[in-house]
Amino acid sequence: MKETIERIIAGLSSRTWVLGGIAAGLIILVAGLLVLTRGTDEGGVVRRAEPQRVMAEKQAEPAAHDGHDHASGAAQDEHAHDHGAPADGHAAHDHAETVLAGACKDTGVAEAHDHDHGHDQVMAATGGDHGHEEHAGEQTHDPHGHGGHGHGEEDFERGPNNGRLLKGDAGPLSLEITIFEAGRPPQFRIYPYLDGEPVDPSTVDLSIELGRLGGKTDRFTFKPEGAYLAGDGVVTEPHSFDVSVHAKQGGQAYDWSYPSYEGRTEISAAAASAAGVATECTGRAALSETIDALGRIKFAPGAKVTLRARFPGPVMEVLKTVGDAVKQGETLVRVESNESMQSYDIVSPIDGVVLERLTNPGDLATDKPLMVVGDLSRLHVDFHIFASDQNLVGPGQEVLVEAVTGSMQAQTKVAAILPTREAATQTIIARAPLANPDGKWVPGMTAKGTIVVAQKDVPLAVKTKALQRFRDFTVVFAKVGNTYEVRMLELGRRTPEWTEVLGGIAPGEEYVVENSFLIKADIEKSGAAHDH
Questions:
Q1: What tens-digit pLDDT sequence spans the chain (532 residues)?
Q2: Strands, E, within 95-186: which ranges?
Q3: pTM for this entry
Q4: Torsion angle of alpha carbons 174, 175, 176, 178, nearest 10°?
């Protein structure tokens, strides 16, 4: 009996352990499911716990968060996860902003461009928010079938010709807005539909107004051409405007309005200042036609002298050495005459510095040089002018003298054209004085010269350093308030300082001169450019 009872107890014990193990396993499973449920966001992405980061976030967590406070580390982390599956243009754009601000890892939203570090400065100065959020959805609007702006989801419908489709709430008319520019200047071509079917364009009265940055309005009327209504003017670049469409068909009036922006961005004044963005106004300028030449720096006539003994005899004393400054009339060498047995002084005829010391006490002074003195404040540059340019160069012309290293510059004028030609190079010499009060220029140095051979005043010009490439255009970036927008330019003559403008920007318009590449980078990274 005792043995039987012991076997029963042993069996019960083993079953208890088994049941206990099963229960523990169920508890662990349920706990895991709870963790997964709490750690999964609305898009179904599992978040892994990071104890140190979580503790830091709890300590720094603000009382309220509206979803756009990029100053908070916790808020940035929320954006990093929540934008994993953006549902609209705003979410996608906010994600791009966060990536560019360096708050999230690279997700391939934007590729790196030249001078990307400059855009990071702008983004850092603005805290990742400089006005794009207002227009994040708007910047995807495209009225003419060029394609989207390269970010976010399009929030408009396209028609059969790949243009923006406008549907009327008050009637059956719908319009497809396109801009045609293949082989011709850009032109509005509008395709009308009734209940989704093409309708005779002659039955539609249409006008469009484009409100541009700065207050200008472009107006277009239309006439039927084949299956579409053709605009009566050129849709000038940039294709960035607020669009108002007015139509009438079958006695019914229709109105639409929407923004369609490209090449535009908004940056606060503080952020622009921190990034070194500076502006000027367009206006008149004097364009200089120049030629480049190489030259060599030399002493001016009379600025270098060689000292010799007047009477032969032993050198008794040498008072100066190479590099010593000397004054006019100062004794440099003392010699004893063989004829009179009297000593006499050899003095400097100019102020300057000792360039060469060619004697020592005890030497016999003859007719050979004893010392060379030069005045480094009196120099000139001899520029070699090729035969093709010799008729362009003459006395009085402005010259910018520059060290070949670019470390020094000086302004002067051509003083003379020497009457002889260099036999080896067949060049003529244009001589220009070079002031050297601080002694930085040294005889023997090679220098570059930019000689102004002609000047012309032009009514409209921009600084050459402000020019950037945008799509297939050379552009500058106009500034209106805190908004910057591309201006496609038609250009004339160009110099290193100024470029003549024949069209594309108005006189007196403010544009970016310093660090314009930062504006370009900001526009490209935000995707505010048409895919032409």
A1: 444 444 544 444 444 434 455 444 544 444 444 433 344 333 333 233 333 333 333 333 333 333 333 333 333 333 333 333 333 333 333 332 222 222 223 323 233 333 333 444 454 444 443 333 333 333 333 444 343 333 334 578 999 999 999 997 878 999 999 999 988 999 999 999 999 999 999 999 999 999 999 999 999 999 999 999 999 999 999 999 999 999 999 999 999 999 999 999 999 999 999 999 999 999 999 998 899 999 999 999 999 999 999 999 999 999 999 999 999 999 999 999 999 999 999 999 999 999 999 999 999 999 999 999 999 999 999 999 998 998 999 999 999 999 998 889 999 999 999 998 888 888 999 999 999 988 899 999 999 999 999 989 999 999 999 999 998 899 999 999 999 999 999 999 988 889 999 999 999 999 999 999 999 999 988 765 454 3
A2: 164-167, 173-180
A3: 0.55
A4: -170
Which stretches does DSSP call E strand in 404-445? Answer: 409-413, 416-421, 428-435
Q: Which of 120, 118, 99, 101 is nearest to 110 (CA)?
A: 99
DSSP 54: H
52/31 Cα distance (integer angstroms): 22
CB atoms within 10 A of CB 71: 10
Closest listed residue to residue 238, CA positions, set 209, 213, 257: 213
Q: Are the beta carbons of 521 and 118 closer than 8 angstroms? A: yes
* Nearest residue to 151 via CA among 132, 125, 170: 132
Are 294 and 446 contacting, i.e. CB atoms less than 8 angstroms apart? yes
Amino acid letter for position 420: T
User: Is-contact 523 150, C-beta < 8 A?
Assistant: no
Sign of the alpha-carbon torsion through 480, 482, 488, 494: positive
Distance CA 477, CA 229 (A): 33
Q: Are 20 and 30 in contact (CB under 8 A)?
A: no
Distance from C-alpha of 461 to C-alpha of 516, rounded to nearest angstrom: 16
Q: What is the dihedral of CA 429, 433, 436, 441, to 10 degrees?
A: -10
**Paired tokens of 502:** 């024949």
Would you call 140 exposed, middle or buried from its count of C-beta atoms within 10 A (0-12, 13-18, 19+)? buried
Give, for 420, the enclosing helix (H) or strand (E). strand 416-421
Where do we find the tokens 């367009």? 282
Query: CA torsion 490→513→146→491, rounded to 10°?
Result: 10
User: Closest by alpha carbon to 143, among 180, 196, 97, 103?
Assistant: 180
Residue keyed to tokens 């090729």: 386
